[in-house]
From TrEMBL:
Protein name: C6 zinc finger protein
Entries under Pfam families matching the protein: Fungal_trans_2
InterPro entries tied to this protein: Fun_TF
Cellular compartment(s): Nucleus
GO annotation terms (biological process): positive regulation of transcription by RNA polymerase II
Protein source organism: Colletotrichum lupini
Keywords: Nucleus
GO annotation, cellular component aspect: nucleus
Length: 273
């Protein structure tokens, strides 16, 4: 469903949002059981529409059409709305309790993105505003059996939770969940894994001295070699800039071959807790 992909792209950069509010509402209002957004994705329409509006506001802010003060007001209002949303009042596609877990996961995935605006570098992932949403998403995953057909719908919230933590046990659990989804669906999600590994590596090594390591900075990365030295080419999209930085890789290896990646891979393969 293109409109869903449009909003997901908007998570990585508001400038990528293409469809209008009217189109998002039209798609969200589809109630045909096998075509409804809620059924296909697991995200309730009310959450989908709210985060879509926030991304649209972020795009307006980047274009200079919405002041940062007004944008912050929109962010605060959306955060309050999502936190106060009574998920038990939502009409779910079927009586299965897993829908409630999916709704909770998408609520906190949206909150994580909202909290990262207007400057994704400011708040560290250890901040008390970030950590509860990461834990909530992982709890939702723990409440859904990995063998359940619902589990694969948790992939996007799982991805966001995994990028927003430096806790080793949370990274390990998220890795196990993601690997299960990759194995059960047959899709390897190579680009997603590259982003995750890049974020985890930078959080561990702190080569840039950033307060936070925004995963969005790795979505348009390209590994290149210059003068025999591996670098990571990052285009900064956080504030609508298009400047590029050549960031040195760790001296003992690239993101692809790092010991950190090998530890994660071994944990997943061996199933060590």
């Amino acid at each position: 469903m293109l409109i869903r992909l449009d909003v997901l792209r908007g998570f990585s950069g508001a400038e990528k949002l293409t469809y209008s509010e009217n189109v998002r509402k039209c798609v969200a209002n589809i109630t045909t059981p096998h075509a409804a957004l809620h059924t296909l994705v697991g995200c309730p329409a009310v959450i989908f529409l709210r985060i879509g509006d926030v991304i649209a506001a972020a795009k307006q802010n980047m274009q200079g059409l919405l002041s940062t003060v007004d944008f912050q007001t929109r962010l605060d209002e959306a955060e309050s709305f999502l936190r106060d949303l009574d998920l038990d009042m939502i009409e779910y596609p079927t009586p299965h309790p897993e829908w409630r877990q999916l709704a909770e996961a998408f609520r906190h995935a949206s909150l994580l993105r909202i909290l990262r605006w207007p400057d994704t570098f400011v708040i560290p992932c250890e901040d008390p505003r970030i950590r509860p949403s990461v834990s909530a998403i992982l709890d939702c995953c723990a409440n859904v059996s990995m063998d359940s057909p619902f589990f694969k719908r948790l992939l996007f919230p799982l991805f966001l939770a995994a990028t927003e933590t430096s806790e080793r046990h949370q990274i390990h659990y998220a890795s196990l969940c993601i690997e299960n989804i990759r194995r059960s669906t047959g899709f390897q999600h190579a680009a997603m894994m590259e982003v995750l590994e890049g974020v985890w590596e930078e959080r561990r090594l702190k080569t840039r001295g950033w307060t936070n390591v925004p995963w969005m900075e790795f979505t348009c990365s390209e590994k290149v070699c210059q003068n025999g030295s591996p670098t990571l080419n990052i285009t900064n999209r956080t504030a609508g800039r298009c400047d590029e930085e050549k960031i040195p890789q760790p001296p003992n290896g690239s993101f692809k071959s790092s010991p950190w990646k090998r530890v994660l891979k071994n944990d997943i393969v061996n199933g060590d807790a």
